Amino acid sequence: MMIGKQMSGKKYPSESDEQIGFLKWFEDRFNGVWIFHIPNGGHRAMSVAKKMKAEGVKPGVPDLYVPAWKLWVEMKQQKNGSVSKDQAAWHEYLQGIGDTVIVAKGARDASRQVLEFLQERRK
């Protein structure tokens, strides 16, 4: 199912669909390497949002994390996905403590950047 914005007659997958596709690729390719989603975004009832905030949810934390590699992945749509001010602040903080942050425009871009990250890491 492809849900997303239509641009110039072409339909682009939603950020969620891109993330699902990337996760499938990642888990198939890197069996045994754990990756998980940070449930920060999305629309919720005000009561749920308040509870999550009280529990420690912070705006701008990247979407996915690979603990073994200290790698964060911020997923965006292929077109018109941009980094918010909160996200930029988190990216700067995480990089400052030695983690790596990838901002990916779609599943294909995320896969490419992960492979490049691993190649650099081996050097």
What topology does this entry show?
Blueprint: E1 6-7, E2 10-11, H1 15-29, E3 36-37, H2 46-54, E4 64-66, E5 71-76, H3 85-96, E6 100-105, H4 107-122
Parallel strand pairs: 5-6
Antiparallel strand pairs: 1-2, 3-4, 4-5
Helix pairs in contact: 1-4
From the N-terminal CA to the C-terminal CA, the straight-line distance is 39 Å
Q: Order the strands across the largest sheet as they lie in space.
A: 3-4-5-6
Q: Overall mean pLDDT score?
A: 90
Q: Specify the biggest β-sheet.
A: 4 strands, mixed
The helix fraction, in percent, is 40-55%
Going by CATH, the architecture would be 3-Layer(aba) Sandwich
Describe this structure in words.
It is a single chain. It contains four helices and six strands. By secondary structure, it is α+β, with helices and mostly antiparallel strands. Strand 5, helix 3 and strand 6 form a beta-alpha-beta unit. Helix 1 crosses helix 4 (107-122). Helix content is 42%, strand content 17%. The termini are far apart. The strands form two sheets. Strands 3-4-5-6 form a four-stranded mixed beta sheet. The protein is globular and about 45 Å long. The model is unreliable at 1-7 (pLDDT under 50). The protein has helices at 15-29, 46-54, 85-96, 107-122, and strands at residues 6-7, 10-11, 36-37, 64-66, 71-76, 100-105. It has a single domain, classed as Trna Endonuclease, Chain: A, domain 1 (3-Layer(aba) Sandwich), CATH 3.40.1350.
